[in-house]
Amino acid sequence: MAGEAVGKVRPWEENLQEESEEGSEGLTLGPLTSPVMSPSCRVSHGIAGTLLGEMALCAKKRPPEEERRARANDREYNEKFQYALIPQVSSLSWFTTIVPLVLVLAITAVKDATDDYFRHKSDNQVNNRQSQVLINGSLQQEPWMNVCVGDIIKLENNQFVAADLLLLSSSEPHGLCYIETAELDGETNMKVRQAIPVTSELGDISRLAKFDGEVVCEPPNNKLDRFSGTLYWKESKFPLSNQNMLLRGCVLRNTEWCFGLVVFAGPDTKLMQNSGRTKFKRTSIDRLMNTLVLWIFGFLVCMGVILAIGNAIWEHEVGTRFQAYLPWDEAVDSAFFSGFLSFWSYIIILNTVVPISLYVSVEVIRLGHSYFINWDKKMFCVKKRTPAEARTTTLNEELGQVEYVFSDKTGTLTQNIMVFSKCSISGRSYGDVFDVLGHKAELGERPEPVDFSFNPLADKKFLFWDPTLLEAVKMGDPHTHEFFRLLSLCHTVMSEEKNEGELYYKAQSPDEGALVTAARNFGFVFRSRTPKTITVHEMGIAVTYQLLAILDFNNIRKRMSVIVRNPEGRIRLYCKGADTILLDRLHPSTQELLSTTTDHLNEYAGEGLRTLVLAYKDLDEEYYGEWAQRRLQASLAQDSREDRLASVYEEVENDMVLLGATAIEDKLQQGVPETIALLTLANIKIWVLTGDKQETAVNIGYSCKMLTDDMTEVFVVTGHTVLEVREELRKAREKMMDSPHAVGNGLPCPEKCSSAKLTSVLEAVAGEYALVINGHSLAHALEADMELEFLETACACKAVICCRVTPLQKAQVVELVKKHKKAVTLAIGDGANDVSMIKTAHIGVGISGQEGIQAVLASDYSFSQFKFLQRLLLVHGRWSYLRMCKFLCYFFYKNFAFTMVHFWFGFFCGFSAQTVYDQYFITLYNIVYTSLPVLAMGVFDQDVPEQRSMEYPKLYEPGQLNLLFNKREFFICIAQGIYTSVLMFFIPYGVFAEATRDDGTQLADYQSFAVTVATSLVIVVSVQIGLDTGYWTAINHFFIWGSLAVYFAILFAMHSNGLFDMFPNQFRFVGNAQNTLAQPTVWLTITLTTVVCIMPVVAFRFLKLSLKPDLSDTVSGPLSAGGAGGRLSEPHGAAGHAGGGHPLSLGQTPVQPGAAVPRPRRYRCGPFPTLPGQVRYSQLVRKKQKAQHRCLRRVGRTGSRRSGYAFSHQEGFGELIMSGKNMRLSSLALAGFATRSSSSWIESLRRKKSDSASSPGGGAEKPLRG
Amino acid sequence: MAMNYNAKDEVDGGPPCPPGGTAKNRRPDNTAFKQQRLPAWQPILTAGTVLPTFFIIGLIFIPIGIGIFVTSNNIREIEIDYTGTDPSSPCNKCLSPNATPCFCTINFTLEQSFEGNVFMYYGLSNFYQNHRRYVKSRDDSQLNGDSSALLNPSKECEPYRRNEDKPIAPCGAIANSMFNDTLELFLVGNESYPIPIPLKKKGIAWWTDKNVKFRNPPGGESLKERFKDTTKPVNWVKPVYMLDSEPDNNGFINEDFIVWMRTAALPTFRKLYRLIERKSDLHPTLPAGRYYLNITYNYPVHSFDGRKRMILSTISWMGGKNPFLGIAYIAIGSISFLLGVVLLVINHKYRNSSNTADITI
């Protein structure tokens, strides 16, 4: 209450200063239209803008003429035209540069325009979502983007909240409404919001239309859990808090309708305030490419300078004396000036080393890869009918380099569905699925689920596979009956029955919903409740229990109980709760049962299930009466009411009889553990960042096998102060360093760790560790002076889980890794709370097919299942990276081979910037003769089949280590290009110098020389692309052969009489092709050149393949060079060749390349199961893990038990139910007696929530920075 | 194509999600192209393909190289430098710019007779016909007989575009610097007087050049009429329509002119000057013996250290003497063969070790 009071005053004062801008914010009539979703529009424009900017940048980096040319479109056109014709400089016609440039710009523009258009369309989709707005006294459909501050909106059940609303009234009594905030913070349980009493009466439209209250509140901010404001209405003030607010991104649940007043809309909403800035994303290859292009420009200038000096010397030594035949141009009066002009001429000629078409080709290739992602059938989810979608087309190859994956939990790893999976009833475990032969069945091979048709009230969606449990129920086993009776009585679920037999449960926590639904299907149907009664249909018979007390859940008690009187009048206490707590409160007589149940609990926990222990206790009438008295006193106590109540509860929940345990599966998305295992083997580190509670997050960590029981240690950092956090981190590091396996020197890292030390720590750590860090602690850990320590510790751990983090913190964590690790990061999430991290990471992936699509809109890639991530990275990403690298290598090679010939020719033509080739050849070389084959390779190439990329995740590593295209590879390509250019010039030179044709005429005329060099060049680069192409599809064949054919066709056309007759000055090479190419000498020269250029390449590649084969070479197929290479059926054989390629040895022990062949790995408990041929890799992983689990259990280590109830429940609902506040009047009337007055229940609900936040277990408060 | 893969899909990929509602048209097409399963040939550099290739290249290149080498060696060729830089040379007197016209005679002996058609070339060294400014200094329209270009030559021809207010025909530096030495060959026979060797001056240019690229300006009158209003290039003695007496070898289609206009790629080059046609099968075209070469020395090259040569050569199927190509083929063939052997050894060694490794498994 105190907080509220302060909240009432302070914001008002703040707002006084900001009144001018807040005016429209605060009140009803502001015509302030904010587009609901704009950042992603900004993304698209950003891309287009920056891309063109990039082009401009490149142009700028070029020497002045180039720049002018690059800009030449209309007005400057003429200027440039004249400029190019300055006879002293121009060595090429204007079109040699302009034609490719215009083509390139046109293609880029078209591509960006389409990109933009599609983004816009999907933005519009959100912006045009309809919402009902109260305008002029009637409800009208308006698109989201037209929703203004001050509007009153009607929301219906399961609708998304479109803006930050002040709740005015709802269909539920007392202006209550329930919301789900999974989109916002990842928590799955329902939350209650309540309208302030004065407005909760405004149920009908006419009264709402007259509502003229004024809200004055805090300015837009990113704090999701805080709101303070004041409502001025009818000359009185009402304080507003977060409890009255519905934030954008929430979903209305269990509430038919509600009305809200828009307080923040569009970018001002707390959600959008949390989503961070939109950054333009570029891949590391892009950056490298730009650097290299700059280097090449430097190289270009160097060559220009060398040739210019050569020109000056030549003109001085020879040119002056040659003037009789070749006088200098008028303007040129000295050798020096001639050299200067020659510099620019050479810059123009040689600029083809950096072809403009590079950028457009890269774009085209990425576009192709994006389409392959869109088209991938294996990334199409049939259920949700959503294909994968590459929303940006600029990041594909980065997918092949990812090192860190940041994943959201709810909706991404989990389905947000709780399923009653197993149970243990008086020492017998139910729920395991056995196939016909009695083996535990794998997923997918399950028999038919249990038939619940005997029960008309059963929930059709509930599936259970173990028929024995139903048999036990039908047999009338008393324990089993009592078990389900407990489940149907001990909860805070509300039921609703619209039509007879159509039961709907409104569960506040999904766990509880799952349990009650299970009881319902097994014949114990919770039908209805009043504040004092619970009606249950037990095996078809309606039984009404008198509800005497609900001993509510809280985070310390970790249990809840109900005390009921059954129709026979017997009083019984039913209790369910966390095993750690409950097992200590059992009656000692059940020792044997307890140990069996404990075993079962361990087993369940090992499978990642959330467990609860159930127990009951009979109470006799007198004891109860006395106890109830004490309870009443305690609850009426003025001071320390909570403690008193707790001790009263404590007293009665004792000496209970164990009934059994339940195991609930927080249903993971399909294939999550396998995917995580596979990605881990591919050396990708996965961090889970979730807004959910620590226990939930850890539990999920276990169930998706990120955390395992055989980990050396799981560090949990929960410190509340800087010092605590620092201390905890330091301890964790010390432990890692000091562990017996560690090789390091064990010195704790001082305050400021250099990156060198970071790696040393990383290397020193042996054993598997995991780090779990809490939101509070993370806030401290992310401070500037501690972030490195945190990062170092976290990166040394195998798994990292951050829980209770805000959307902004998610982004900060990603940013931290991005900044300091120089690694490629990928963020994957489904909800609005993941938007910031999706935007921050190098690559953002959105899970589509959910209700909210905000994450998808902000993402770069989207698909509907987490498990598709493995395919996106290991198949598409890997291929993209490979293709892009091969493409770039080849592209630089071919342009150097092409251009450098001019350089060598310069030494023989007086450095006069004479080109070697025909100008048309120069124009067309990059855009026609050599572009398509390399594009086809860049789009279609595959080194290993897609299955192999999944089977050998180590194949992903070259991308992470950036091995396929880096500066070294670049220099190799350049060297190869220069080598080729040398041969390309000097072999024809050697042949032509003194030779004549077979008709005696001169052979070494300039035009024949040009044709010979050009033809050999085209043939050599075609052969080279043929060598580089690893996957010859029909398209590759078509393009490669087609390019050669087109070259000759164009050559003959250009040299034809017809064209010459029309433009004698443009087509001077008339008759040349037919004359030159008829010469055997020319063909001998071309053959020689080709062989000499290609032979060393083949030799080197062959040597590398035989001496140091890459893993991809070894597994590339049945034809593999290394022989035994990648046979799946004999995976053990592969390792020796592959150098660490053994699928089973991955990620465990590094196998040195060429080291002794590893023996088949043995596990502590027996031999590895023999593999049948063609076992899928993920199955291996799964089996391996199972084997380990069994080993561990047998060794006797206790699994970490996790109690589900403790973390998905909120205190206060018991009281709510007992007060009857949330029950409809009709049902209350039915109950027929007055409810116990408890007007302040909602306050107490709120207070309890904040109490629990400060309790160490699982606070509800979200720490915030700044 | 797509059908081939249908069955396969079901086996290894399967639908990712349990089949639920009916698949809609959003479902990606299951075509080989879209699923990146186009049938493809995946060439891999295996020992089985690479090594034979090297050996085959070796085995092909060496004989070709030997063939070329032998052919080239069988070609008779004699080269006579008549620049006259050497003071003892008869042409030394012509170095002085005043001595025009200058005549000199060089004696030489053919050790072996030249069979078949013999070709007479003039060779220039250090002459930059490939200089950019030189190469472009021509107007192909004009040379193709375009009347407007004849009177208004292209700017590229500067500074040899106009002279004395008249357009130059042919314009440009190339034409202006046309080689204008006259070479005559005499066989010093048994008789007291030397026998002139008949030199054919037609058929030395490419057919396309002579018939397509170069044309005289149109007009029915005499060639002189057609070239009226133009002036000769600065360096020329005679106008272009007086290059030869025969009308089909005069003006722009004069073959000496055409040959000169086909600029050389390299600063040292030879151009065909005259043909010496074989007379009969019985007699060698140029029997062994003493000859002398009469030179009308007009063309100064001394100023830029140029050299002038007269070359007599026979030809074969692959043209004139070309030692480079033969040697290069032999060398590359040998290297390829050697490389094949080296790779074979390396591969053999490697395979041995890997095989043992395989066995230990």
TrEMBL record, chain A:
Its EC number is 7.6.2.1. CDD domains: P-type_ATPase_APLT_Dnf-like. One of its GO terms (molecular function) is ATP hydrolysis activity. The active site is at D408. Residues 856-1109 form the P-type ATPase C-terminal domain. It catalyses: ATP + H2O + phospholipidSide 1 = ADP + phosphate + phospholipidSide 2. InterPro entries: ATPase_P-typ_cyto_dom_N (IPR023299), ATPase_P-typ_P_site (IPR018303), ATPase_P-typ_TM_dom_sf (IPR023298), ATPase_P-typ_transduc_dom_A_sf (IPR008250), HAD-like_sf (IPR036412), HAD_sf (IPR023214), P-type_ATPase_IV (IPR006539), P_typ_ATPase (IPR001757). It comes from the Eukaryota. Belongs to the cation transport ATPase (P-type) (TC 3.A.3) family. Type IV subfamily. This is Phospholipid-transporting ATPase. It comes from Ailuropoda melanoleuca (Giant panda). The gene is ATP8B2.
From TrEMBL, chain B:
Keywords: Cell membrane, Cytoplasmic vesicle, Disulfide bond, Glycoprotein, Golgi apparatus, Lipid transport, Membrane, Transmembrane, Transmembrane helix, Transport. It comes from the Eukaryota. The chain crosses the membrane at residues 44-70, 324-346. Residues 1-28 are annotated as: Disordered. GO terms for molecular function: aminophospholipid flippase activity; structural molecule activity. GO terms for biological process: positive regulation of neuron projection development; positive regulation of phospholipid translocation; positive regulation of protein exit from endoplasmic reticulum; protein localization to endosome; xenobiotic transmembrane transport. It is found in: Apical cell membrane; Cytoplasmic vesicle, Secretory vesicle membrane; Golgi apparatus; Membrane. GO terms for cellular component: apical plasma membrane; early endosome membrane; endoplasmic reticulum; Golgi apparatus; late endosome membrane; phospholipid-translocating ATPase complex; transport vesicle membrane. InterPro entries: CDC50/LEM3_fam. It is a multi-pass membrane protein. The keyword Disulfide bond applies. Signal peptide: none annotated. Belongs to the CDC50/LEM3 family. PANTHER family: CELL CYCLE CONTROL PROTEIN 50, CELL CYCLE CONTROL PROTEIN 50A. This is Cell cycle control protein 50A. It comes from Ailuropoda melanoleuca (Giant panda). The gene is TMEM30A.
